[in-house]
């Protein structure tokens, strides 16, 4: 055989599976995990977490379940600090988005609305397969964008929409006109430093995670170098780099969901179809709660914009202090408390 054909990236679904198993072993509550097969044979990796001490399972079954949708490059393992707490009184479902984690990795169209539609259809078919009538839908980052789009299309299935540092809401700022409007005025963009531009052009040339994959055996080290915070966020649970390994193996598989994300995004991470242009399509009666990390790069002012657009509709915007973009991992106790109280307003 050709000498180069045996080069393997240090990853496989089985390594992802064992990294995930190590994480899920921390859970105290009952975990049921399986692949949910969609009509087109794509499979969605799914967790269902229930409280074993609630013997009256009828009570828990009566509560509207909470469904958690992770963000870009994530997977169900990232909710490790939240699943037990949030499943105390109701069933919690978490799944790997189509094209991410352990779910199937189909090809995605390069058109933004078609790529989005492929994500949304997979979520709806997943819901149908599980027979969930209604849910409290929570999405983080890209998951928040998709959860909102889902709720616009299937509002009768959602009791409350919870958005955590949601991606893709604001419109890209337009270039400013300088001067008084005379012929001396020129279009002046607020220009990022040159090194940022160089990096962005390099990144937009690749799929966002290609660099991790291209690093081959050095990939996990790269994740640790660039995201040391991930290791810190979970270091009381794991004394090694379990979490880093999990994130690495989630993203070193063949690219799929990230191709869909790339179709939906412009450079520097703006959405091609900003969600603020569509939030008015949510039913006026739909309660929406928007949580932001006070230290995050995501602008919480967008939440206020959404509240303004929705007028008298129930919209709340909350800042979680001392939390950055991964609010649920930075301040898990506060995050769990807030989400629990939102869920309790439903039933």
TrEMBL record:
One of its GO terms (biological process) is lipid homeostasis. Gene3D superfamilies: alpha/beta hydrolase. GO terms for cellular component: lipid droplet; mitochondrion. Keywords: Hydrolase, Lipid degradation, Lipid metabolism. Pfam families: Abhydrolase_1 (PF00561). Signal peptide: none annotated. It comes from the Eukaryota. Belongs to the peptidase S33 family. ABHD4/ABHD5 subfamily. It catalyses: N-(5Z,8Z,11Z,14Z-eicosatetraenoyl)-1-(9Z-octadecenoyl)-sn-glycero-3-phosphoethanolamine + H2O = N-(5Z,8Z,11Z,14Z-eicosatetraenoyl)-sn-glycero-3-phosphoethanolamine + (9Z)-octadecenoate + H(+); N-eicosanoyl-1-(9Z-octadecenoyl)-sn-glycero-3-phosphoethanolamine + H2O = N-eicosanoyl-sn-glycero-3-phosphoethanolamine + (9Z)-octadecenoate + H(+); N,1-diacyl-sn-glycero-3-phosphoethanolamine + H2O = N-acyl-sn-glycero-3-phosphoethanolamine + a fatty acid + H(+); N-octadecanoyl-1-(9Z-octadecenoyl)-sn-glycero-3-phosphoethanolamine + H2O = N-octadecanoyl-sn-glycero-3-phospho-ethanolamine + (9Z)-octadecenoate + H(+). This is (Lyso)-N-acylphosphatidylethanolamine lipase. One of its GO terms (molecular function) is phosphatidylcholine lysophospholipase activity. Residues 65-168 form the AB hydrolase-1 domain. The keyword Ribosomal protein does not apply. Lysophospholipase selective for N-acyl phosphatidylethanolamine (NAPE). Contributes to the biosynthesis of N-acyl ethanolamines, including the endocannabinoid anandamide by hydrolyzing the sn-1 and sn-2 acyl chains from N-acyl phosphatidylethanolamine (NAPE) generating glycerophospho-N-acyl ethanolamine (GP-NAE), an intermediate for N-acyl ethanolamine biosynthesis. Hydrolyzes substrates bearing saturated, monounsaturated, polyunsaturated N-acyl chains.
